[in-house]
């Protein structure tokens, strides 16, 4: 917990709950900044009892920016002051083919409320000038291979591969986006990575240095052992 003259009383908490066998899990996020309207709140539930892992949750996030880009991908004419309130829900399902490979599906629906600010005639205070609301529905599918083995300070050997495809419904729907990310982890050289963008929304990813000693990675033990 904390207190500041600008925001008042605040707190930041993450809480995880589970039964003894780990079949059912609850997670809560509670970041309070003066009032519930300006707070980040989320809750999720995951059922891991059967082979299909099923989950879902709700969220509410409020942030203030000075940028030409919004968190939902909208490009603004110039850098502007604005606040963004995003809230909605998500559902996901994951099916493991083996210890190291799985296929995941996710559906996210959210409402994004943006308030633009401009300076008043005195030039000292920001006042609300414009309000925009977007409703977005975004399904996605993701194939993951992960044979990384963790040591005391992170992964020490193995490899990771993520192939994903998504489609946005709503503003800036456009064509489906496809992407891939690959990580190579060497035993004696530490961790190296390479990311390959394939039309993902952010278009990010830089190819990392690949040492001759790096390998694609193989399981350290057989599945189920």
How many β-strand stretches?
12
Order of helices and strands: EEEEEEEEEEEE
What is the beta-strand fraction? over 45%
Q: Provide mean pLDDT, rounded.
A: 77
- Specify the number of helices: 0
Class from helix and strand fractions: mainly beta
Classify the helix fraction into a percent range. under 10%
Uncertain spans, ≥5 residues at pLDDT below 50?
Answer: 187-225
- Main sheet, how many strands, which sense, barrel? 12 strands, antiparallel
The whole-angstrom Rg is 21 Å
Shape, per Cα inertia axes: globular
* Distance, first to last CA: 44 Å
What tags apply to this protein structure?
disordered C terminus, mainly beta, 12-stranded antiparallel β-sheet, 225 residues, single chain, globular
Word description of this protein:
This protein has a domain at 2-146. A hairpin with a 4-residue loop joins strand 6 and strand 7. The protein is mainly beta and 225 residues long. Strands 1, 2, 3, 4, 5, 6, 7, 8, 9, 10, 11 and 12 form a 12-stranded antiparallel beta sheet that branches. It starts with a strand and ends in a 29-residue tail after the last strand. The protein contains no helices and 12 strands. The relative contact order is 0.10.
Summarize the model shown.
By secondary structure, the protein is an all-beta fold.
Provide the fold topology.
Blueprint: E1 2-4, E2 8-18, E3 24-33, E4 35-47, E5 53-69, E6 75-96, E7 101-119, E8 126-146, E9 149-151, E10 154-166, E11 177-185, E12 191-196
Antiparallel strand pairs: 1-2, 2-3, 3-4, 4-5, 5-6, 6-7, 7-8, 8-10, 9-10, 10-11, 11-12
